[in-house]
Amino acid sequence: MNSTHFIHFKSTTPTSFNHSNHKSNLYPSNYFISFGHPSNLFPKLPSLSFKSCDFSVSTRASIPRPVSEVYLEKPDEKIGDKADDKIDDTAQLKLLRLKLKEIGIDCGSCRPGQTYGLHCPMCNGGSTGEKKLALFISDDGNAATWNCFRAKCGWKGKTQGSAGVKSTYNSMNKLTKVKKIKEITERELKLEPLCHDLFEYFAERMISKETLLRNSVMQRRYENKIAIAFTYRRKGELINCKYRDLAKHFWQESDTEKILYGLDDIDGARDVIIVEGEMDKLAMEEAGFRNCVSVPDGAPKKVSSKDLPSQEEDIKYQYLWNCKEYLEKASRIILATDGDGPGQALAEELARRLGRERCWRVTWPRKNDNEHFKDANEVLMFMGPAVLRGVIESAELYPIKGLFSFKNYLSEIDAYYHQTLGTEIGVSTGWRAMDDLYNVVPGELTVVTGVPNSGKSEWIDALLCNLNQSNGWKFALCSMENKVREHARKLLEKRMKKPFFNVRYGQSVERMSEEELEVGKKWLSDTFHLIRCENDCLPSINWVLTLAKAAVLRHGVNGLVIDPYNELDHQRPPNQTETEYVSQMLTSIKRFAQHHSCHVWFVAHPKQLQQWTGKPPNLYDISGSAHFINKCDNGIVIHRNRDPEAGALDLVQICVRKVRNKVSGTIGDAFLQYNRVTGEYMDIN
Ligand SMILES: Nc1ncnc2c1ncn2[C@@H]1O[C@H](COP(=O)(O)OP(=O)(O)OP(=O)(O)O)[C@@H](O)[C@H]1O
């Protein structure tokens, strides 16, 4: 260790220091080569000498007995019994290797009768990745014992190849803490009151003598150097001790119970502040908050992607479990961890365990244009106690995924009020007669129905042409009934206001020229994107929505037409009713529409009307389910007069039967005139 990391011991401070045996109990254990086997783990194991490169160790012929804690489902003797049997070693070893692999121990080509140093699957050898898992395979190759010698882990166990894989595996999963908790005293640790230099060191960090004394911050000498000793106490009793030198190196007493620093200060507290280091805990006290504790082990690099482990397996956060009864009483926990990535990861890990609903978080003030202060002590040093107090007082609720406040949407509400996008109250259909009834809002679902041949597809096509003309909207078309070329014709006629052909329906109107066709083709390609199933099979709604999503992202389409519903594949699981299926399908469509701000027109046919009187059908007549009307934002029925005696045959009734959003329209009927030559719909003067 670099001596400059220590606070140099001045001659003015007491120098009584016992050099004779200091190594055995003074130096932090992790500074030793600490691969000594506790003698009680392998009682018959002769002294081991590990090869530095691979940790492979030969033992004497006598097989060390497995570790004393009982994991085996079969009695130990069986190992010995089997050693005498003439059994197929290779098969047995294979079985054992498989078993170990299941447990997570990769024993590679480990041979019986030897001890190997491997990576511990539980702790991965800590930050240095050391191979500290000692694995011993018995001579007969049927049993293995292991022990991780990292103080923080201590995982150990044993298994037999011939034991039932499942049961043994399960028992192996129950991690057994083998560490004996060491009892420590200030005397044994040779802790001393802080010296003048250290009071000065803390004073520079704005931590007062009173705070240091109240928190029993002490010092410990290492020859002519001193380290700060933060004493971890519970009900005044010393539980752990963490040391810090000037170069911010930390170490702690091994084999002690992990608890929060300052635990007694939160006894019975309703509000608890959790910080990331002892200095921050002391800084909080300077700002007037004693109800603060620090985590003992700093922050993880990132949030774990795994599910929350059980209490026994939650080794890294064991300190929380050990302080459970203190934290349980808190109704508000302010997570004032560092503002950097690991600090935020720590806050998330704490919130996961403590319950997000009672957690709050702080925002550290700005240091300059690019940076924020990192932690409580920095704020105290540079901004003073009042600012630090302000930070805690303005803590905000810790976000919970899926739970929001209108506060999270204020800018969106403002933009809505000011109609920043221009589409907030809906886009005009282009027909005056419909302006009060139906306007097209991005992200909504319009269900269109009408008896066969009423002109549903024609009207939607005409609407798309209008929306393109007025707002430049683009569309994805999933119109399975239409041949591409016919659909192109219908759209081009509306756009060019001329018939495509020079035949009957065109009457005497001149057909569009080749030049106009060229212009029209470019317009078609720029405006519409086709979703089509090239083979015979029917597309599923999910398939359509996936392609529509691609059309939104790739071409920026503003609308999707699905025409008609019954041309999709509607196979559903046998236990699902049609109603359930339709409900689920419409939910997917609406989610797509909202997520991509894309309007969806969905054409659905009414069920067979036995005694159709010629009147427009009802939205409830749509075959399949009442969900069509329940779930859509807008419901429109297209109806046309087919009785010359009842009125003009080109009269089309657009029945707006449902408008969820009053901003965009209301229920009512509009009448348009259909131009059979060009397929246009026009307002009636
Ligand atoms: N008001 C109208 N007057 C005369 N013909 C019309 C009128 N509206 C639509 N048509 C014609 O009816 C035919 C069918 O139109 P369209 O395909 O739009 O109807 P639809 O309601 O979608 O039919 P389907 O339910 O069979 O899909 C087209 O040839 C179209 O020109």
TrEMBL record:
Domain SF4 helicase positions: 420-685
GO biological processes: DNA replication
One Pfam family this sequence matches: DnaB_C
InterPro entries: DNA_helicase_DnaB-like_C, P-loop_NTPase, TOPRIM_DnaG/twinkle, TOPRIM_dom, Twinkle-like
Domain of life: Eukaryota
Annotated EC: 3.6.4.12
Keywords from the named record: ATP-binding, Helicase, Hydrolase, Nucleotide-binding
Enzyme class of the recorded protein, top EC level: hydrolase
UniProt-recorded Gene Ontology molecular function terms: 5'-3' DNA helicase activity; ATP binding; DNA helicase activity; hydrolase activity; single-stranded DNA binding
Key word Iron-sulfur present: no
PANTHER family cross-referenced by the UniProt entry: T7-LIKE MITOCHONDRIAL DNA HELICASE, TWINKLE MTDNA HELICASE
Protein name per its UniProtKB record: DNA helicase
